[in-house]
Amino acid sequence: MSDSLHELWLRGIAFNTAAPAELLIRLLDEAAGEAGPLMCEGRDLPGAVIEAALRHPATRIRRALAGNLHVDPARLAPLASDPSGLVRAQLAGGTRHQPRWVRPLPTDILVTFLTALDGGQDGRLTAQDIAGELWSSRQVPPSFPRDVADHDHPALRLYAAHQWQSLTAAQRTALLDDPDPDVREAAHRGNRWLDPKVVEAALPSLSERARWFVLGTCALSPAVIEQCFSDDEVHPLARNRHTPADALTRLARHPETEIRRLVAARPDLSPTAAAQLRQDPDEDVRLRARLKPCIRTWAEFETVDMMLGHGRDCTCPIITQSAEPLPDWYATCAASEEPVLRRVAASWPDLPAQLVAALALDDDEEVRIRLACHHPLAPPHLVLDVFVTRPAHRPHLLTLPALPRTHLTHLIEHPDPQVRALAAADPALPHPPLQDCDPAVRQAAAANPGLTPQILEALLTNPRTAQGAAANPSLSVARMHALLNDCLHPTTPRVREGT
User: What are 141-200's pLDDT values in tens digits?
Assistant: First the structure.
């Protein structure tokens, strides 16, 4: 049998949902080539396979497992202290597939990374290198600084001190008197940025980038604010939560439209200024000002702000905020006349079922799209409709259990091959499209569990369908083992090109 068929069989079996653990463990053999790493990275795995991969001597197997999006991250905790820094870095950096929603790593794994003294026995990376991967991975929950502000390990308290404005007042007070000198120094340094006089004195020595950050996040003196207006450097002030009311009133009258947009929905904007902005010549400013009565807290403001400016095909990451609005606020948004607020409600995964049912019928298409992409109770017919009509969302929708996998016969002749591929896997399909012009559709059809053993045998010998046939869950376990035997322990010499 040709090497090409062997590779296709290996890849197919690696993703066969009916393959038992003892068979999948055989794919961890070096002779299985790339099938083992692909399996460890790309699918959910039985517990026995996870344990075998965690203990596997090959770094590439453990590294692939570290990037798995489907396995409960708590099962991967041993990889946080793996002998190889490359494995640790993969776990810290997350999956390479860039999903829209990233599960946060458990606290014990984060603690292991942030208290590590080295980057692994192989010396390929430092602990700082690995921590850098962690910060850019979106796997650290926003609540983590508050969770570790009183941790026994000073490295964790030092991390919390560097996230000063994320902490509660009680946590700040405790860190200012921390027994560790480095933690105390970091705490006092963070606290100084909330002192307007200290900020004013420090500004002249800061780089342009640091100055922009400080003006947008720190407490500012009246003199600094006046200087910002004189220099027309007010953009950071419009975002700064410490900007006083009188300055916000002036920003609401600023000639630059973007500045007025930034302040129009702020919860601390005066009712008078908001009323003026509801008459603004810019439509977006008017919209934000109309939303202002519904925005009373910074958590509500952040939630609405993340929604504004995004269209139907937005695939921005789905992130968790440091503070969530109250459930009653989301219910109010669901009943609002403003589509933006209903989109906000549709994006909240804990919205009650009766409100989900109402939003599934919403006149605003973006409300329905966001419901399908974000809510676990979204009606399957809605999820399917968004899959068919909005291609940008398909990679994410394919990960959702609500996406229908049956009763798709009406889509088998759809002009879009991605839609046909979904329909081709429907087990109730009378005639899977094995001759479709698109390879992905053919593979999906070959993996259709409704196919007979006789048809499967023919498909296994055809390179156009062999991988899909090997992934077919109706393939017997005995036949899977036989295919692996042929791939891993061939009984006849292989004829290679040039020999």
Answer: 999 999 999 999 999 999 999 999 889 999 999 999 999 999 999 999 999 989 999 999
How many CA atoms does the CB half-sphere of 360 hold within 13 Å? 19
Residue 128, CB-side half-sphere exposure with 13 Å CA sphere: 0
On whether the CB atoms of residues 216 and 236 are closer than 8 A, the answer is yes
Written as one letter, the residue type at 138 is R
101 three-state secondary structure:
strand
Cβ–Cβ < 8 Å for 65, 50: yes
Q: What secondary structure letter does DSSP report for 282?
A: S
The whole model's pTM is what? 0.89
pLDDT cut 70: percent of the chain above it: 98
The CA-atom distances, in angstroms, between 350 and each of 244, 376, 383 are 35, 8, 17
Check residue 304 and give its pLDDT.
95
CA dist., res. 289 & res. 156, Å (int): 41
Mean pLDDT computed over 296-315: 91
Q: Are 414 and 388 in contact (CB under 8 A)?
A: yes
Beta bridge partners of 101: 318
Contact 14, 24 (CB under 8 A): yes
In whole angstroms, how far apart are CA 319 and each of 220, 296, 324, 454?
A: 30, 21, 11, 48
Q: 17 with 473: CB under 8 angstroms? A: yes
Distance CA 85, CA 244 (A): 48
d(CA 422, CA 440): 9
Amino acid at 274: A
Q: For tokens 């005639």, what's the residue? A: 431
